[in-house]
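Q: What does the predicted 3D structure of Pyridoxamine 5'-phosphate oxidase putative domain-containing protein look like?
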Amino acid sequence: MLQIVSQSNICFVSMVESGIKPYNIPFNFGFDESYIYLHSGDEGKKMDILKSNPEVCIAFSNSEELACQDENVACSHFMRYRSVLVWGPVEFIEDPDEKISILNKIMVKYTGRSDYKYSSPAIRNVKVFRVSTKNMSGKVFGY
């Protein structure tokens, strides 16, 4: 399943506002075998929701491709895909060195580099959080 996560460019994080209203937004991310890593500014709707209800579901999908059994029959068309869901509580990271380590994991995913410099104010102000991969499921359909 981590191969599907690795091949995904973004993930979609679902959360619940005020216990009843779903809210879903795209994130870039980093990961390892134990966690999905995310980051954000300290303010805004998503942070308000996560602080009041840290339970999330993270969706990854890739290799989407239209396929069909008969080109002339609409209902024979379907999408092939590979997907993974990860769910659990967000854990906020406060330690500056751990934040830097996690931000580097995110940067490695997108740039292949981990030699970035971070200012003290940037590290102090960024919110870094993770979700355990203990609760993870995946599906491959049509391949």
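A (community wiki): The structure tokens above were generated from the sequence. The first strand starts at residue 11 and ends at 17. Residues 54 and 73 are 44 Å apart (CA to CA).
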